Amino acid sequence: MHPGMLGAFLLTEAVQQLRGSAGDRQVAGARTALAHGMGFTLGGHASVVLGGADAL
């Protein structure tokens, strides 16, 4: 994925939300997260669903 706003930053934001460490951006009660990133020139896309054991 692109390392900027369309990729890895989305994944790190999702992890921070789930950890409860997102500061002013924190979503109250976040238990699951979906991050979708793209890279290359309209050629590569990836999605990931994250959550802790309590989200199963």
From TrEMBL:
<protein>
    <recommendedName>
        <fullName>Thiolase C-terminal domain-containing protein</fullName>
    </recommendedName>
</protein>
<dbReference type="InterPro" id="IPR016039">
    <property type="entry name" value="Thiolase-like"/>
</dbReference>
<feature type="domain" description="Thiolase C-terminal">
    <location>
        <begin position="1"/>
        <end position="51"/>
    </location>
</feature>
<dbReference type="Pfam" id="PF22691">
    <property type="entry name" value="Thiolase_C_1"/>
</dbReference>
<dbReference type="InterPro" id="IPR055140">
    <property type="entry name" value="Thiolase_C_2"/>
</dbReference>
